[in-house]
Amino acid sequence: MKLLKPIVLASVFAVCFTCENNDLVSDDSNMKLKAKDPIFMDLGNTMRTIKVKNKIDGLSKSANSAKAAKSYNVALYMAEYITAGDTEEMGNIVYFNNRGNKQLQGDFVPGLALDGTNAISYYVDDNRPSLDLDVVVSNNAIDRAMNTWDGIICSNLGMFEIAYDGRDTGFIAGIIGEILGEDFGGSQSYVADVLHAGWLPARAFDLVAPNGSQFILGVTYTIVFTDEEGNLIDTDNNGKYDVAWREIYYNDNFSWDDGNHYDVETIALHEAGHGLSQGHFGKAFRNIKTGKLHFSPRAVMNAAYSGIQTTIDESDLAGHCSNWSSWFNN
Ligand SMILES: [Ca+2]
Ligand SMILES: [Ca+2]
Ligand SMILES: [Zn+2]
Question: What Gene3D superfamilies does this protein map onto (predicted)?
């Protein structure tokens, strides 16, 4: 199959070269890569009832422990993945509930935060390190990525890290493990608004997209609140499903590096963008002679890896600010 693809593409190229309005070929040397429609994957019923006890800052330890746990219904709603960039596959959106074209975006809701604060919490799980990097090195890269988003001045994320304490994490790791009959760890407990859940073996990514193990670098899953029947809810009526938290996983099939190929900070910055409700952005082109992938505009939120990128570009900034500048913090 892999060998056939260039031939198929080359013939499409030849046929379309004279077409008007063709959107495959942008000029003689660059081929525009077409974005695919979102895909649907059926992982069965992922709705779970979880108990969360919010620890409120300022309350004494005993007052906090006296607070009753509250029950919430949550389910996996969607995922977004970024691809390695050296295949024909571009990153995409995956929906796990088939509602035709009635899919909405997801977003956090002020006042409905499971950590008890509108500030954005994150957690980095050391229990699933990459095969290639010392966990301290990858953690530092992830922290740098989170600080980059937190440093944007149009938003007031008040980001804070929940310190690693060894606990089991991973709503999605649990579900994937159940489906594949393997133990990837996992927990049905809320940990933080954005969970960097760590690295999983390649086969876990075949549940994100068909053959996904071969081209997905990283994926961000969106877990949303549901009602008791499992219907997705939009309690603040903003036309977006209410996000409970997001989980980020990295594909250990690829070689991870710190400042090389594939650079953890670059992918963590991209995935954290999804963690903060941003979608993919930019048109992808492949140079016909060199095979090199490039984007217009180049941005952190491009759907495939095209080299190290650890700063937020204008288009990323616009997306972030339109979403977060009106967010009220606490
Ligand atoms: Ca929060
Ligand atoms: Ca909403
Ligand atoms: Zn992505």
Answer: Collagenase (Catalytic Domain)
Nearest to 261 by CA among 133, 145, 89: 133
CA of 55 to the centre of ligand 1 (A): 12
Q: Calculate how far, in angstroms, residue 160's C-alpha sits from the geometric centre of ligand 1.
A: 9
Question: For residue 159, how far is its CA from the centre of ligand 1 (angstroms)?
Answer: 8
Write out pLDDT tens, residues 235-274: 999 999 999 999 999 999 999 999 888 999 999 999 999 9
Q: Within the chain, which residues score under 70 in pLDDT?
A: 1-26, 55-59, 63-64, 100-101, 328-330
Helices (H), 249-310: 264-275
How many Å lie between the centroid of ligand 2 and the Cα of residue 288? 43
The whole model's pTM is what? Answer: 0.89
Asked if the peptide bond before residue 129 counts as cis, ω within 30 degrees of 0, the response is: no
CA distance 301 to 105: 16
pLDDT tens sequence across 275-324: 999 999 999 999 988 888 999 999 999 999 999 999 998 999 999 999 99
How much distance in Å is there from the Cα of 253 to the middle of ligand 2?
Answer: 35
What's the CA-to-centroid distance between 252 and ligand 2, angstroms?
34
CB within 5 A of ion ligand 2: which residues? 234, 236, 238, 240, 242
Distance CA 60, CA 129 (A): 35
Distance CA 134, CA 257 (A): 10
**What is the distance in A from the centroid of ligand 1 to the CA of 117?**
5
Q: List the strands of the sheet with 30-33, edge to edge.
A: 30-33, 283-287, 293-296
Among the bound ligands, the one closest to the CA of 235:
2
Which pLDDT does position 56 carry in this prediction? 59
Cβ atoms of 62 and 70 within 8 Å: the answer is: no
